[in-house]
Amino acid sequence: MTGPKPLSNILAITPYKGGQKLDHGWKLSSNENPLGCSDKAVEALTKAAQHLELYPDGSAFALRQAIGAKYDIDPDRIVCGAGSDEIFQLLGRAYLQPGDEVLQSAHGFLVYSLVAQQAGAKLISAPEKDLRTDVDAMLERVTDKTKIVFLANPNNPTGSYISYSEVKRLHAGLREDILLVLDGAYAEYVQQDDYNDGMEMAHDYPNVLMTRTFSKIHGLAGLRLGWAYGPESIIDAVHRVRGPFNVTSVAQAACLAALNDDAFVAKSVAHNNGELDRLKPALEEMGFKVFPSVANFLLIDFGSEKRAEEADVFLRSKGIVIRDMKAYGLAHCMRLSIGTTEANDDVLAAFNDFAKAS
């Protein structure tokens, strides 16, 4: 007997796989905050957990009000989701149909591809220059079928970013009926003066949506909460396709507390940038090619897929797991998340041993 058959475009999807972990050692494969999360978030979550019999606020009203106050934006133009991943998928439901096209840079976040496949749309990837989004290449690939353009800025897994002037140039080259999604998952880590997360554009233009997440800098990946800000029409469309209780009460409570813990955010940024400055030159001195990064990870080029695989096996033998990049078309590379100082010490020792042995 045969049961119901899923749609062909669904069967063509390769499910997303998160970073793996070991039973012991250091998991540096998922870009998680090595400092954990705010103590205030834990306290708020614990308190909220005393009332799990109650449904969450389906509109995330208090959290949206707090986000609005934090960034001086209209809370009615904010929508929350189970991570920014869910928001991307909701956009697919609201705006894509079979035959449409989704545009990204060559090594964009894998979830963009899933969004396209789930809708029966086609993913178009524009070549990059030095693993950086090439605005001209993106615009050259816009067609009358293009419906959504995803721009991760900074980008995962490359760690690169483009300036605000380049983001605005990309937007200026798009038709008004094309949705530009600015994914700012790693925005808090960026210190460069020419960077902007695009919040102003999301305020000013009817076809720009900016997304953020509590998973990275706030260290709340386990709770799954992201948010988006943009035009009322787009926010309304997302509300119409999301589940009525898509964000849990404990997640809302913890994120509300974490939002204004500026001391924890500052500590996380300082640790990350200090360790980036320490790890990159040290790895390069060992002979590894390491790409510049403004996020909380480093992309390392091993020269070949074979050597990347050998490095993976060797590092695992030392209790260190990092992320292979085959799914991103970068089989010769691996991505290393920034860990604690102790973890990073072990990373440097392990890479040094591998360099000497290979």
Automatic annotation (TrEMBL):
It catalyses: L-histidinol phosphate + 2-oxoglutarate = 3-(imidazol-4-yl)-2-oxopropyl phosphate + L-glutamate. GO terms for molecular function: histidinol-phosphate transaminase activity; pyridoxal phosphate binding. Residues 27-349 form the Aminotransferase class I/classII large domain. The modification N6-(pyridoxal phosphate)lysine is found at residue 216. GO terms for biological process: L-histidine biosynthetic process. Keywords: Amino-acid biosynthesis, Aminotransferase, Histidine biosynthesis, Pyridoxal phosphate, Transferase. Pathway: Amino-acid biosynthesis; L-histidine biosynthesis; L-histidine from 5-phospho-alpha-D-ribose 1-diphosphate: step 7/9. It is an enzyme of class 2 (transferase). The keyword Amino-acid biosynthesis applies. It holds the Pfam family Aminotran_1_2. Gene3D superfamilies: Aspartate Aminotransferase, domain 1 (3.90.1150.10), Type I PLP-dependent aspartate aminotransferase-like (Major domain) (3.40.640.10). InterPro entries: Aminotransferase_I/II_large, HisP_aminotrans, HistidinolP_aminotransfase, PyrdxlP-dep_Trfase, PyrdxlP-dep_Trfase_major, PyrdxlP-dep_Trfase_small. Its cofactor is pyridoxal 5'-phosphate. Its EC number is 2.6.1.9. Homodimer. HAMAP family: HisC_aminotrans_2. Belongs to the class-II pyridoxal-phosphate-dependent aminotransferase family. Histidinol-phosphate aminotransferase subfamily. This is Histidinol-phosphate aminotransferase. It comes from Henriciella algicola. The lineage of its organism: Bacteria, Pseudomonadati, Pseudomonadota, Alphaproteobacteria, Hyphomonadales.
